Amino acid sequence: MLNILKNWKNQHSAASNMECYTKENILKGEIPEHIAIIMDGNGRWAKKRAMPRIAGHHEGMKVVRQTTKLANELGVKALTLYAFSTENWKRPKLEVDFLMKLPEEFLGTYLPELVEENVRVRMTGDREGLPPHTIRAVEKAIRDTENNDGLILNFALNYGGRAEIVRAAKKIAEEAKKGTLNTEEIDEKLFSDYLMTETLQDPDLLIRTSGEIRLSNFMLWQLAYSEFLFTDVLWPDFKDVHLLQAIGEYQRRGRRFGGI
Ligand code: FPP
């Protein structure tokens, strides 16, 4: 009996917490300017339904659309989505091929709406190694949206945080060797400018879905002072209410950047 009461209480308070996370309420607080998301759990979502893993990725693509729409409506300035890591090449060829076709399908379906909604598409990651058809789709979207000044939808594709840092260090070293850069000039700001995220400001909030609590080589430099939010929800199940809930949690946290 006691357990039943406890369960009821938990469910009840969870439900009433959810009710606070309306768009209207969230807009009363500070909106994170840059949200980064590790979209995890597509495979498990599919497995639970006895479907192939790629079905989970396809469902995840639809969630990308919905999340972009809401983030834009909330006035978020940038949304970086970890769509394919440098480690993901180790997956079976069929899955990799499918993931490489998703940007084309996504942009083929939704680009006109993104243009209409003033969304600007960008990509962070190594273009080398990506199939030409994937690059073509992404480059077209970047070109077609370059004059938009709403939400920046930044796809981290063929991206690895350590490789990004090494690449920046190499470029800086080459410039120093050539004499076009003085080593005294090297500071955090300059280093950031050599990263693939260049002018994008660091994420305020990192969300990872599916219950995994790790960074998986994602934005290692840029996430130094971000708020982290881990949720058990699998990415294909991530709905508007979960984004609102994540931002609500962010609004309750006090960011001190090392100060007091
Ligand atoms: C991780 O889940 C997810 C990925 C490696 C791919 C993420 C891609 C999408 C959500 C679609 C991207 C859409 C566009 C428009 C590019 P997992 O497969 O590792 O899940 P699991 O841990 O449950 O196996």
TrEMBL record:
- Catalytic positions are D40, N88 (proton acceptor)
Q: How is the cofactor bound?
A: Binds 2 magnesium ions per subunit.
Q: Which UniProt keywords apply?
A: Magnesium, Metal-binding, Transferase
List of residues binding substrate: 41-45, 53, 57, 85-87, 89, 91, 208, 214-216
| Free-text function comment from the UniProt entry | Catalyzes the condensation of isopentenyl diphosphate (IPP) with allylic pyrophosphates generating different type of terpenoids.
Annotated PANTHER family = DEHYDRODOLICHYL DIPHOSPHATE SYNTHASE 2, DEHYDRODOLICHYL DIPHOSPHATE SYNTHASE FAMILY MEMBER
Which named protein is this?
Isoprenyl transferase
Source organism per entry reads Bacillus licheniformis (strain ATCC 14580 / DSM 13 / JCM 2505 / CCUG 7422 / NBRC 12200 / NCIMB 9375 / NCTC 10341 / NRRL NRS-1264 / Gibson 46)
